[in-house]
Amino acid sequence: MVRKYKRKTTQGSYGSDRLSLAVAAVREGQSIRGAGADYGIPRRTLIRHCSGNVRRPGVVAMGSKRCVFSSAFEAELVQYAKEMSKKMYGLTTIDVRRLAYAVAAKLGVHHQFDDGRGLAGKDWLSNFMRRHPELSIRVPISTSLARIEGFNREAVKAFFALYKDVLKEGDHRATAIWNCDETGFTTVTKAAKVLCQTGTRQVRKASSGERGKNITALCCVSAAGSYIPPLFVFPRKRMVMSLMNGAPAGSIGAVNERGSGYIDGALFMKWLKHFVEITGCTKEHPHLLLLDGHESHKTLEAIDFGREHGVIMLTFPPHCTHRLQPLDRTFFKSLKSAFSRSCDNWLTSNRGRAITQYEVIALFERAYSCTATIQTAVNGFATSGLWPYNDSKFDAEFEILELSSHPPQVAAVGEFVTGVTDTQNTTSLSTDPTMTTSHDDTEHAVFTEAASAPDVDTSPVPSEDGIRAVIASCSPPPPPTKKKRQTRTTSVVLTSSPYKLAAEKKRKARTPKQPLVAKKTRNVRCEQQPTPGPSGLSRVPPRGNTKQINGDEDTQCVVCCEPYANSKSREVWLQCLSCKKWAHAACTAGDPYYTCHNCESDSD
User: Fold this and answer.
1) 264 lies in a domain?
2) Max intra-chain CA distance, the chain
3) Interval 230-254 mean pLDDT
4) Do residue 159 and residue 232 come from a single domain?
């Protein structure tokens, strides 16, 4: 079978539409010669179709091969695939092949599909995709059920109504509307595709390690295309300025108390001061900041600071940032792709070296400088419907999602299938020539017919609703998810007076954490003070030794300031050789000859 056939003549190029119109004109009284001249149909062809010498009058049938399904049926199948994709339950290639076989078996249509596997062939699928170029095979983005349920018409309409009120009150322009969000960058990126020999079982590529360390970057863009230099959060407890080598101009770096590399309330306050310093917003000229509802953004300190400096903070509805947040729509994906390319280029140029926290920022700057463009930021706000303001941006999606909760009725299937399935015949389901409305030169309006089919087919005509019912019966849509009864937070203005009063009330109602009651005597593994050896160097006793700490529960770690009373059982502590103060071994480099950072700075 020729898979990519190219036509060598123009025979039958007039199509079935014009042929059926010419046949109808002849039946209404026009001469064959005149109808052929008007519609461009050869006279002898028109004579055959008008005299009934062909099985399907008004249909162009080129060659002996026929499409398994009609063009109308394939059009409905294409529409069904589009709708399922918009409902986030898209059909795979296997699903389409299985659906084609199920429909053909249900209708009793003659086919050459694989009965053993219950699938249509790959050739049928490739030809189906070629006949309908509006379909393409894509890799979908995994979307959680919480986001599928959370992104609904009520939540989005409520957000846009609140957003509209804020725009009217402040008379904000594009230069005063901002969006900020955090994203992570790791020292080990996903490997890109490479060229290799055909047939290789496993292809490998060098990376910096098995698991990388995550560095958080807080980015911010405006509706006019301006960018705020980002804030970087490193996974460590002490900030070293060499980590910021090669960073974008004006950016800042920080660490949190836990050393986790994630943002918290204190770090967001630091960035908020950075934001006010660059934008110069005041109470007289406020700026609108759109952000998600993370707990670090809702601290009372951030709310008070925003009210004092003219920063109006508006949160997105929960589980809706993947559609409403400009940074997620157009910026972060291209930024991370460029960052991965920068890391691949660096590993290729520096063979044998691994990417550490000290190189990440310089690699980030290369990606940031080529992706942080004005058009990217403007497109992000436009696709989200935030600027220009468009509260009906997602109405078409909501209509499709709402239809998924009302699946089509399948009761109408037997109305037109009975004449085929009851007799187990493979007769054609072609339409009357006068009722033919849409055909082309490569597709036919009938199913594959048997050799014993009559010249004029009188089988029932399947309607569009009937075709949808057949498809739904063979591949029913997913049932609607039951909404759980739970209190959901909505989009709010964090700097508004009601929310501030609620935050203050919540803080007052919060019960203080009870201090831990420590025992009077605890055995804690620690490193004793080294004793000088014969050569003048210091020696450390074995790690198995312990030291009694009696009643000294107020001793704090010089690095993280955690009191000794909160330490875990059998936790290792180190004592500074100079000042005799203590520190967690986990907070230091683990050197038994430990000298704290205060003493190191004094000696310098």
Assistant:
1) yes
2) 124
3) 95
4) yes
pLDDT value at residue 564: 78
Looking up residue 564, the CATH number of its domain turns out to be 3.30.40.10
Strand partners, 181: 219
**% helix, strand, coil for the chain, step of 5:** 40, 10, 50
Say what the pTM is: 0.68
Do 416 and 392 reside in the same domain of the chain? no
At 436, list the tokens.
């033919």
- Of 360, 378, 398, which residue constitutes the final position of a domain? 398
Give yes or no for a contact between 164 and 389, defined as CB atoms under 8 angstroms apart. Answer: yes
Please give the distance of CA 557 from its chain centroid, rounded to a whole number. Answer: 43
Are 76 and 56 in the same domain? no
The answer to which of 80-84, 304-308, 568-572 has the lowest mean pLDDT is 568-572
In a domain, 508, yes or no: no
Question: What's the pLDDT at 83?
Answer: 86
Residue identified by tokens 């698991």 is 211
What's the Cα-to-Cα distance from 238 to each of 217, 232, 546, 550, 589, rounded to whole Å?
17, 13, 28, 30, 12
Give the closest residue to 476 by CA, choosing from 415, 412, 407, 413: 407
Find tokens 């086919």 and name the residue: 111
Note whether 285 and 310 are within 8 A (CB).
yes
Are residue 416 and residue 438 in the same domain, yes or no?
A: yes
**80 domain residue, yes or no:** yes
Tokens of 318: 């929960």
For the segment 304-329, the average pLDDT, to the nearest whole number, is: 95
What number of helices (H) and strands (E) belong to the chain?
20, 12
Q: Tell whether 255 and 296 lie within a shared domain.
A: yes
Contact status, residue 289 vs residue 312, Cβ threshold 8 Å: yes
Q: Could you tell me what percent of the chain has a pLDDT over 70?
A: 78
